[in-house]
Design goal:
This protein has about 220 residues and is an alpha+beta fold. The chain has 8 helices and 8 strands; from the N terminus they run αββββββαααααααββ. β2 and β3 form a beta hairpin.
């Protein structure tokens, strides 16, 4: 059987999700190819899917990904009717290097030269202060350290209370920014990533948001 040598335009890679951006992709922003409304932030320490081993892992880096369609995985720039990329001539580095039949080239840039929010957000942008405050007060490293300590026992109540405080603070900072600067949902996902309460998981508790009230409810061991 002859080995595949070129893209068959099946769209599988585009349907599985948008690429992670690298420093080489920064020029696509001033060109108007990409904007913050096209991007989603995965914060350092957040659980994210690693396509190289098909596992969920805590991200070692802050990552910017091209958003999916309507909350799904399919890249927003993929035209499913034509099985083509609408920004093909200006597609990001990972898209240029990815070959489903030979992943050597894309493996070479894995973990290297990732683009982050600080590369895009101007220093005088007032939202930068909110971003930095969220990183300072609502760290995934602190969240993850709490998760490792929880065993579903009564003495873990103080840890749950500290965890709840961080999740509430994350919501408070982003909600204040959304209110004052009239951010769309897509802009919020760029500046702050997904709300932390949506990304945290433990078999020992459930997290519920009712109105503006966030609850961390213990699950019986």
């Amino acid at each position: 059987m002859q080995k595949q040598q070129e893209c068959k335009r099946c769209g599988t890679c585009c349907k599985k999700g948008g690429p992670i951006l690298h420093k080489d992709d920064l020029l696509l922003v001033p060109k108007g190819i990409l904007s913050i409304n096209h991007l989603v932030t995965i914060r350092q320490g957040e659980l994210a899917f690693n396509p190289f081993n098909n596992r969920l892992e805590h991200s070692k880096h802050e990552l910017l990904k091209i958003a999916g369609k309507a909350g799904g995985w399919e890249c927003i720039f993929y035209d499913s009717a034509k099985s083509s990329c609408t920004i093909h001539q200006n597609r990001p580095l990972e898209c240029r290097l990815l070959k489903c039949w030979d992943i050597h080239d894309i493996e070479q840039i894995n973990g290297k030269e990732y683009l982050n929010r600080a590369d895009i957000v101007e220093k005088n942008d007032p939202l930068r202060e909110y971003m930095e405050l969220a990183e300072e007060k609502c760290s995934y490293f602190e969240i993850n350290s709490f998760l490792q300590k929880i065993r579903g026992q009564k003495q873990d109540q103080s840890i749950l209370e500290q965890l709840t405080a961080i999740l509430e603070q994350d919501l408070g900072i982003r909600n204040k920014a959304v209110y004052f600067y009239k951010l769309s949902l897509q802009s919020e996902l760029f500046y702050f990533g997904r709300p932390m309460f949506q990304t945290v998981y433990s078999p020992h508790f459930q997290i519920k948001l009712e109105g503006t009230t966030l609850q961390v409810i213990r699950v019986a061991p």
